[in-house]
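Standup notes
- HV: blocked on the assembly model, inputs below
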Amino acid sequence: MAAPALALEAVTKAYGRERAVDAVTLSLAPGERLALLGHNGAGKTTLLKLALGLTRPDGGGVATLGCAPGSRGWTAARRGIGFLPESVAFLGSMTGRETIRFYGRLKGVGREVCEEALAQVGLAEVAGRRVRTYSKGMRQRLGFAQAILGAPRLLVLDEPTGGLDPDSRCAFHATLATLAGRGTAIVLSSHVLTEVEAGTDRIAIMRAGRLAACGSAEELKRRAGLAVTIRVAVRPGGSARLAEALGGRPAERINDHAVEFRCSAGEKRALVERILGTGDAVEDIEILPPGLDAVYARFGGTQAEAEGAP
Amino acid sequence: MSAVAVIAGREVLAGVRNRWMLAATLLLGALALILAFVGSSPVGAVDATRLSITVVSLSSLSVFLVPLIGLLVSYDTLVGEIERGTMPLLMTCPVTRWRVVLGKFAGQVAILAVATVAGFGIAALVAGLGEGGGPEAWGAFGTMLGASILLGAAFIALGTLFSAVVAERGTAAGISAAAWLVFVVLFDMALLAILVADEGHAVSGELFRVLLLLNPTDVYRMLTLAGSETVGALSGMAGVSAEAAFGHGVLLPVMLLWIAAPLALAGLLFGRKEL
């Protein structure tokens, strides 16, 4: 197995008495896309700063592209890092092209690569304009262009899609998929759950500085033990037959056309078989897995806090 | 291109774009021209060239303006980028924090140097062309120009240090204003007050000489005014220069130390800063 692009080992960081990041262990393989979820103040940005060497851990170990931030070789290792901060800022008096060329020179990539990056984020046409005249979304795209310069081996994106219109978001995720296909490890923090589910391999949920859960969306849904909804469209008079066949199992919603049941993932198969066993009473059947928002509420949200979830 | 040069280049570009370079050049140029025209009128009475007199006037102007410009371009150099949010991005690029400090410093010194050479150069040309100059006067002008850039560099280094120490731009601005007041106005007044009160008992000539080295603007005065006989005589520094007989061999290294020490300290503090 290839060396991880990012390896955090029981890393801890406190500001005063508050632990912003508390004993987080996390590893990211080349080509893997990880989403970092959590409330504001859950420790996502601090975790990313630790990975980037912008802040020093109080305890634990950080290895980014195989190198501990601040150690010998860290400056050179940063050639392989692309970063887009949460509220990206550039000198307003420079043009988009000058800005990209500036970061390109620092990262040791040529003019063509810079132009390519500008074209990739759709800013080639306006690259001659001063950044001051850019909209928020355009500045965000410029930030993204800067982050992907020279095909980084690790891409760190802090809430990257804020301010982007739907088209730009699509293009953004397509670019991420291409980069991941070429081996770039990507970690992004986000609040947009639907995007996260579609565009990442693993999800890490943070709560009060701790890693509350980490795994693929399917894994997390299973582990959360959330109910699956089975929606059955019935023929006229079918709901009574269905209730009889299921031995009076409580249903969520009953009318003449549809019945909904909730069950655990383990029960699902047996229940579906019994429903289908009623024959022509059933017109159609739909199985609705729990959404990521429910998973998030379970591990990272207020529900988790109320229940004292792990 | 090295990272220092890349960062210095961006600093110069920003200085040109936000018209800092132009403003500083115009300010220095306009005042220098006024001095060249008005200040050098008593040429006939004394045995001096117009340029020599202009050099004296210009160095008096420099002592006030150059530190001010130096602090203005540099006071938020680091804290400003942290506050605006451009610094974290820069610090994830493959460049050390030392190089960032050096690059920004070099760019700002370049801005100040261009403004000084252009602004004072025009005045020197006006005063020194034809019979207004002479080899000695031009030499003194060159020394004054070089010393002005060094003085500016010292205050840019101080501004960089302030911007590395504080957490907010406003604080850096306050400290810079106080530093200007201390070095340009209060230090000499205090020194004078001590000399008068002491009547030469405790503060010997030796101690006085060393005390002058504790202020970069005094080092600058000694570098420019005491360097040339004519200029020294004109500026009333002849007495001081005989008393404070530091040669350029001492003054130049001290001035360089006034640049290197704050810059080194700024680099050290910025290196430890969490972003």
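- HV (later): unblocked. The two ends of chain A are 30 Å apart (CA to CA). The interface with chain B takes residues 49, 52-56, 75-79, 81, 83, 85, 87-91, 93-94, 98, 102-103, 105-108, 143, 146, 156 of chain A (CB under 8 Å).
- Next: hand off to the docking folks.
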